[in-house]
Amino acid sequence: xxxxxxxxxxLVQAGGSLRLSCAASGRIFSIGTMAWYRxxxxxxxxxxxxxxxxxxxxxxxxxxxxxxxxxxxxxxTAYLQMNSLKPEDTAVYSCNAMGLNTQRLAFNSxxxxxxxxxxx
Length: 120
Description:
By secondary structure, this protein is mostly beta strands. It is about 0% helix and about 60% strand.
């Protein structure tokens, strides 16, 4: 039972910055990949960024250069630094983690999401 809790969402003006956090807890042995996704009303969920246990990163189209994903393995926490925010970034941002629990069984957990609203 691995749980993820996102925090850091809120209202920000266009051009501003925001940092999201995703804290994983539970019977965790290892987390292979942590990722941020977002979904706007009426739109499909899309990948924002993901990071491996070794620090390799991938970003969604047009997001590289504005968003940066990082992680603190000791804290089982991932972060998403969002800069130069645009109104089209408005969405619910959700965290995902995949790894092994203490029974060495795979888990794929999602957080409840945090709302990010960017005003013009």
